[in-house]
Amino acid sequence: MSKRGGGAYWPASVLKGRGWTNELMKQLLPKPRFVMSNGHPVRMWSKEDVSRAESSLPFSNGRIDPKAARGGQKGSAPGVKHARSLLSQAWEEAERDGSAPWRMAGYCHAALMARLTVIPRSRAFGPSQAKGQMKEFLALEQSCTGKQLTAVLKNFLLSLPWLGEQSDSALARRVLERYPQVLAGASRQALEEFAAAQPEADLDRMLSLEGFPAAQLLQEGLAAVWSVWYVPQAIRTSLSLLIALNPKDEYPEARRLHRRFVLHLGGTNTGKTYAGFQRLMRAGTGIYLAPLRLLALEAQETLLDAGVACSLSTGEEEDLREEDTHMAATAEKLDLKRRYDVAVIDECQMIADRQRGYAWTRAVLGVLAPEVHLCAAPEAKDLLIRLIESCGDSVEVEVHQRTTPLICMSHTVDYQRVQPGDALITFSKVGVLSVAEDLRQNGKEPAIIYGALPYSTRRRQMEGFLSGQMKYIVSTDAIGMGLNLPIRRVIFMETEKFDGVERRELKAEEIKQIAGRAGRFGMYNRGFVGATQNLPAIKAGLEAAAPPLEYAVAGFSDLVLQVDFDLLEVLTQWSQMPTVEPYRKLDVSRYIAIISKLREKGFLLTREQELRAANIPFDETDEGLRELFFQFLRRWQQGERVDQPGLPEEEPTLPELELFYKKLDLYFSFAKAFGCPVDEDRLYDTRERVADEINEILLHKLRSNIRFCARCNQALPLHHRGRLCSACYRRERRTT
Fold it and tell me: Does the pLDDT value for residue 591 go beyond 50?
């Protein structure tokens, strides 16, 4: 039966275990479905219908306590039934109005009646304790807090068997006489206390909503009902009114355009971006969107060289030119209000990235251009076509093939025997530096490329390779996206990488992206791919078909600021709300972590300011950057000048210079986000100076910036302490 129901349905036996009666099933649930079990039909209801009904007041009023019911009336304290009848009569005879205190009192009464079905003898209070609790209950009318109300009502419930048995006593008569007024008076005070603590709370609306959880009010109190039941429900209601379920409907201006998409599909080095870019250069106005600021800068320079007035906008810098007709930008910086004749969006397979994919989704759905060129890997084809057609736009597909064949080598390569035009790939910064130093010690001058390298330094290294000054490259997978270099062979030194969560095998699409850099068109007739180890894994990756992308990541818009609740709660509820296929919600954990840390540090910001701060691009896991971010924010909040960070002390190390460059990026991003004045000429000069110093280290001082194990001579991690690597240290410990 469980298989037939698929786990989504409950039989009557389960419902009765949750407090349902046959009368409640008939009253509150739709007609059941019947499932055959052992030759007999069994009634079944969907969990969704049951859960919805259990949040209603009629269920709270009519529910039977399953635990007490299993004990039977034999173990029930005497007087319970009489007490229930007396309190119900007292409530019905009271003169009640529709005010908030009386509505809350009604929920308290309903919760008490729902619980006052069977009270085991073992739990009922004795006469002396019951009398004391009755007096505590009466005192609530004059003095009550939210916590007192919950605690006293729970004890009052266990005193009611005494009330039923001693209903003729003076104290019992007093309780019955004042029962409705005590609940109303206590509710009024609890509401006033809560309103003073949270003046933004709309308690009238909360108390008027259908399905108010009376049982939760009695069990956990008013604050819990507000935060756990009402706020999430109210936020979701507000969000559903502001934000469309289908992300495409968030861009009405783009929906009014009939856009024509050209989808350029192909692997690395197939000319797909070049094809889109040629059309962009001929357009009267246009925008190019890239995943990396280096690519955006190259696009700007190409357009400027062609006589096209082009501005630049990335998260770390701007070069806005008067009378520009074109813009080169990173995907996140797209201006959705500006119209263009042609848009080119590069590396569109990034649309499925859980952290940044929202920027590509936003661009595809919302860019205001009648002609849009999308450049993507083949695995993005079906997903992109689905999004385009859902917008009512037209699409044509151009498949680009490599003009230079890519050949997998038949044997492994000794990296000490590299050839001019080779690119050696390893997946850690210290690996890149140590391999580069090994080559240099053997008279081979390599260019060096890795993710943390400032883009100005990266350009210097690339220029050295392009000019022939450096005949080899040692790089991480940073080489895989957009860097068109005259590489003849790509040699993988590893087939695993750490992706920020775990160390794992390379995916087929990653192997293809990196390997595709070999054999640049116009320079080589063929490109070669090899490995120093595990060559079969590289060959299998080249031959495997990358799985099609399954979803596009959808982000939230500034409309979340219009929801009048705490921003963290709004973001949390937004992330949990459903969306249509083929979309997935953006991972908001970074926003929540940064905003939570801001509050922990004592910053009092508006919701708009919190969101602006959380949007600033920097590595919040780096302690130095995080503290500088807080320092900038504190100075801004106090009305002080936010100054550019000072240069490191004399002879800074490579990691110190790289961190300082990141601090300069953070300074610019923060200043732009919060409207602080920036001396952009000074900032540019400082960046170039740091890039030069890093380049000087890479060219001439690399060995002095790398520490090697005193026993095995392997390169040590840059921040490693001690003279031995971890493996040698463990071996030495075992022998001593």
Answer: yes
Q: What single DSSP character describes residue 353?
A: -
**Above 60 in pLDDT, residue 602?**
yes
In the chain the first and final C-alpha atoms are separated, in Å, by: 65
Kindly report, residue by residue over 150-187, the tens digit of the pLDDT. Answer: 999 999 999 999 999 999 999 999 999 999 999 999 99
Nearest to 30 by CA among 17, 45, 16: 45
Cβ within 8 Å of residue 250, ≥6 positions away: 243, 244, 365, 366, 557, 559
Does the pLDDT at position 1 exceed 60?
A: no
Cα–Cα distance, 51 to 34 (Å, whole number): 19
* pLDDT for the residue numbered 339: 97
Q: Is residue 255 predicted with pLDDT exceeding 50? A: yes
Q: Report whether 481 contacts 292 (CB < 8 A).
A: yes
Phi, psi of 465 (to 5 degrees): -75, -40
Q: How far apart are CA 473 and CA 445, in angstroms?
A: 9
When pLDDT is averaged across residues 8-32 and rounded to a whole number, the result is 84
231: its two tokens: 């706020």
* Size of the chain in residues: 736
Neighbour order of strands in the sheet with 40-46: 9-11, 40-46, 33-37
Percentage of the chain exceeding pLDDT 90? 55
% of the chain residues with pLDDT over 70:
94
Q: Name 309's Cβ contacts closer than 8 Å, sequence gap at least 6.
A: 321, 323, 324, 325, 326
Spatial separation of the C-alpha atoms in residues 328 and 189, rounded to whole Å: 60
Q: Is the pLDDT of residue 406 over 50?
A: yes
Q: What is the CA radius of gyration of the chain?
A: 34
- Confidence (pLDDT) at 706: 67
Return the minimum-mean-pLDDT range out of 23-32, 351-360, 406-415: 23-32
Residue with tokens 């990266």, as numbered in its chain: 458
> How many CA atoms does the CB half-sphere of 500 hold within 13 Å?
3
To which residue do tokens 């791919």 refer?
529
Token pair 């030194």 in the structure block, residue? 493
Q: Please answer whether residues 437 and 706 qualify as being in contact, where contact means their C-beta atoms are separated by less than 8 angstroms.
A: yes
Cα–Cα distance for residue pair 105/188, rounded to 1 Å? 9
Quote the strand ranges of 285-417, DSSP E. 286-290, 310-313, 318-319, 326-330, 342-345, 371-376, 394-399, 406-408
Residue 644, pLDDT score: 94
Other beta carbons less than 10 A from residue 135's beta carbon: 12
DSSP 8-class letter at 525? S
Structure tokens at 199: 């003046």
**Strand-strand pairing, 33-37 and 9-11:** unpaired
Q: Please say whether the beta carbons of 68 and 76 come within 8 A.
A: yes
| CA–CA distance, 475 with 449 (Å, rounded to integer) | 5
Residue 521 pLDDT > 70: no
Q: What span, in angstroms and rounded, lies between the C-alpha atoms of 457 and 683?
A: 16
686-706 residue pLDDT tens: 999 998 999 888 888 777 666
Residue 11 near residue 47 (C-beta atoms within 8 A): no
β-pairing verdict for 260-265 and 371-376: parallel
Pairing of β 472-475 and β 446-449 = parallel
